[in-house]
Request: fold
Amino acid sequence: MRIIVCIKQVFDPLTPVNALTIDSDRKKILGSAYTPPVINGYDEQALEAALRIKENWPGGECEIVALSLGERFKLDVMKKALAVGADELVLVDDAAFDTADSVFIARALAAAIHRLGGADLVLCGRQASDWDNAQAPLLLGEMLGWPCLTLARRVEVRNGRVEVERVLSDGSQVMESNLPAVVTVTSELGELRFPPARARLQVARRRPKEMTLKELNVEIGSPAAEVIDVSLLKVERECQYIGGANGAEAGRRLAETLIDAGLISPNGG
Amino acid sequence: MAGILIFAETDAGAILPNFWEQVAAARTLAPQLGSVSVAALGWQIKTDEALRSGAEAVYVLEDERLTEPWPDAHLSALESLCHELHPAMIVMPRTTLGMEVAARLAFRLGGALAQDAMTLQLADDALTITRPVAGGAASATVRLNRAPWIVVPRSGAFTPAEPGAEASAKVVSVQPSISDAALKTRCVSRARQEGETISLERARVIISGGRGLDGPEPFQLLHRIADAIGGAVGASRPPCDSGWVPTSYQIGLTGKMVSPEVYIAVGISGATQHTTGCSSARTIVAINTDKDAPIFRMATYGVVGDWKEVLPAFHAALADRG
Ligand SMILES: Cc1cc2nc3c(=O)[nH]c(=O)nc-3n(C[C@H](O)[C@H](O)[C@H](O)COP(=O)(O)OP(=O)(O)OC[C@H]3O[C@@H](n4cnc5c(N)ncnc54)[C@H](O)[C@@H]3O)c2cc1C
Ligand SMILES: Nc1ncnc2c1ncn2[C@@H]1O[C@H](COP(=O)(O)O)[C@@H](O)[C@H]1O
Reply:
């Protein structure tokens, strides 16, 4: 069993808008110089899904490869994948990957997976928090001609098939397919486990495997959808603070203020 | 390529309410792109409303395999229809199914995808849209260089169109073409959450709880308050991920987009991925122990305090005035 988990390095999605900057061409969001990047949250959860599969794998013959396309990688951030238990970390470093073009990213992912000798299962996050595209895994499935199962909160592999429980807005759905397949993971799956201290020390000495865009042999072509401008959205309202001698008084005053302003009605109207 | 096709998603035969926002989005470009048609996919579809959408034709694609939101089946049926009709633009609903099928359809048709479009502008044969990115922290202008353009309008960006008086559209029944080879996945089972009392999308007042509530029990107090003021209860992501409340409560980028008159956020810090789903509320009220929580920057009224003290008194005051 071979699982490739696609992980993306992104600027911290909790960076306040005021701390974000835009590049001089107004085509990219740069994050903040003071906040280190992170592994995209859903990708950490995809990694967790992989680790759970490996844990329950008969005979333990299950290999997990974490794959990332990006630039200016922070090794201590990306090596978290190794610290939690991935067998290998593969980084493809090229400025071309700093793009919102999901078609290009998916092509490069497909090529990298191919070069890595293929996989039985590719796990991805449901979306990357920088552009919120939610497209690369779907396109990857199309390009590889593999089934694609999305928004999994549970992923199980048995008898050459993968079964997922996917989250819908009004419930859930169990779906399955044969392997190989692409599966995207959602936050309901649960957080990535914490790496043991010992493992964190051990990975300091390990090197990621490096590949180049050239080796992947994908062309950068003109994107079907192209970002031509980006601006930050700063919303500021004037907040009227409601206080009191204690929380209870503030709570009562808040209710009265809202009722008097006609915003809420105490009899369900 | 000409005209606009709207994908009308159905659930238990009924067309989803998103449809009317899609109609509104389509109408902004109909003068330039020509006729609007609708493709309703599902099983035992009730088409009457769609017939009053002002569309020229309603293509009805019925197949039992289109009962559940099964991406492969819907994609296959829609793709074949597009190969027949050659629409210049396809408007998809912002739903789990709609967004997924949109991305894959754009790829198959060799077109370009615009997720979460807030505005649409057509000039010099290119469609340019704006969309929120980075969880709503920024807005991007995106040019779609290749047609057909597959557009998913952002919830709340286009004021829903109203059904017209006349059922003017012609109905065209089409046997959906869903090949077995296209069905690489299988549906095993489906579970539905029990009906919410008041739907979040339609609620006038919403009271939402966040991680600061620290467990499932406090949501009962939120429910009592919501009942008293005729509102609905929502949540940020952590309470849903932790199973304190069902996922259907989640408000935000990957949850529901709501626009009530009043939104009360309790123990919610105000991350952009959450507030992007409620920022169109006319009045936002925040209750949070941290005076620096970002939620106060978008609130109209705020209480810096512990919900354990604030909320019971808030609830009692409602009873006093009721
Ligand atoms: C791509 C992406 C998509 C996402 N989609 C969504 C989404 O759809 N919806 C969503 O909500 N989030 C979403 N998130 C997560 C989002 O970034 C935040 O992590 C989340 O909204 C935080 O929830 P919270 O405010 O409840 O928790 P926290 O940020 O932990 O805030 C808890 C707050 O409670 C306050 N508090 C603690 N104790 C008390 C008390 N006793 N009384 C009063 N206040 C108290 C604290 O001061 C704090 O401000 C998404 C993230 C990403 C990256
Ligand atoms: N540059 C990348 N490197 C590795 N995986 C990626 C990359 N971009 C996207 N992915 C994967 O695809 C998912 C969806 O990304 P996106 O379509 O960009 O929202 C992410 O959660 C990752 O699992």
Remarks:
- Residues 18-33 of chain B form the longest helix (16 residues).
- Residues A 6-8, 40, 42-43, 46, 67-70, 97, 102, 105, 124-125, 127-128, 131, 133-137 surround adenosine monophosphate (ligand 2) (CB under 6 Å).
- Chain B has eight helices and 17 strands.
